[in-house]
Design a protein that fits this description.
This protein has 193 residues and is mainly beta. It has two helices and eight strands.
Length: 193
C-alpha cells in the first residue's frame, strides 16, 4: 500500500509542472491611439512652449491563467507629441519611449492595469534660428488605468485608458524648456493574439 501511495505521489509531482504550464496562456498585443499630455508637461513654462496632443503605439507580451482574474503584461511603447509656441520657422517634438511591467486584474470584461517602468524622454527642435538640438532624460515611472475587453474568438480587441508618470524630477529641458517630469494619458485601441 505504501509503495502504491509513493508511486502515485511521485507521478503527481512529476506531472504537476506540465499541468501548470499547460494552463498558462501567453499572447501578444498591439495597440495605438492618442496621447494627451497633462499637468506641467502639457502647460510647459512661462516661455510659452506647450506640448500638444500626440499619438501612442505599443506592443506587449501578455501572460495569464485562464481561470484566474490576474495577469501580467510586459510592454514597450512609443509616444510622440508636438511642441507649440516656438518661434516662427522652428518646429519641435517630444518623444517618449517606455518599457513597463504591468499587473492586470480582470473584473469580467473590464480590467484594471498598473505597473512600473523605465521611460526615456527626448525633446528635439529644428528650423530657422534653432540650434537643431535634442535633449534626453531617462527615469523610472509608474502607470495605471482601466480597460475593456471585446472577445472575438481566437483574438480579442480592447480599449484602454492609462495615466503614465515619468518620475524624472522637475528638471527642465534646456532646448525647449519643457518639463522633463512628463505625465500623459494614452487612450488606445488594440488587438490581443
Amino acid at each position: 500500500m505504501t509503495r502504491k501511495l509513493l508511486t502515485a505521489l511521485a507521478v503527481a509531482l512529476l506531472a504537476a509542472p506540465a499541468a501548470l504550464s499547460a494552463q498558462i496562456h501567453t499572447g501578444l498585443s498591439i495597440a495605438g491611439g492618442i496621447a494627451l499630455p497633462t499637468g506641467d508637461f502639457k502647460d510647459g513654462t512661462a516661455n510659452g512652449y506647450k506640448v500638444d496632443n500626440g499619438y501612442n503605439l505599443a506592443a506587449g507580451l501578455n501572460v495569464g491563467v485562464p481561470l484566474l482574474p490576474i495577469g501580467l503584461r510586459i510592454e514597450g511603447a512609443y509616444n510622440r507629441f508636438g511642441i507649440s509656441g516656438l518661434p516662427t520657422g522652428v518646429t519641435g517634438n517630444q518623444d517618449i519611449i517606455s518599457g513597463t511591467v504591468n499587473g492586470t486584474f480582470g473584473l469580467g470584461l473590464p480590467y484594471i492595469i498598473g505597473g512600473v517602468g523605465y521611460y526615456s524622454s527626448k525633446a528635439s527642435v529644428s528650423g530657422t534660428g534653432a540650434s537643431n538640438s535634442s535633449d534626453r532624460t531617462n527615469a523610472g515611472g509608474v502607470n495605471g488605468g482601466i480597460g475593456l475587453r471585446f472577445p472575438l474568438g481566437l483574438i480579442s480587441t480592447f480599449a484602454e485608458i492609462r495615466y503614465h508618470k515619468m518620475l524624472g524630477g522637475d528638471n527642465m529641458n534646456s532646448s525647449t524648456k519643457v518639463a522633463a517630469n512628463s505625465a500623459y494619458i494614452p487612450i488606445t485601441f488594440g488587438i490581443n493574439f
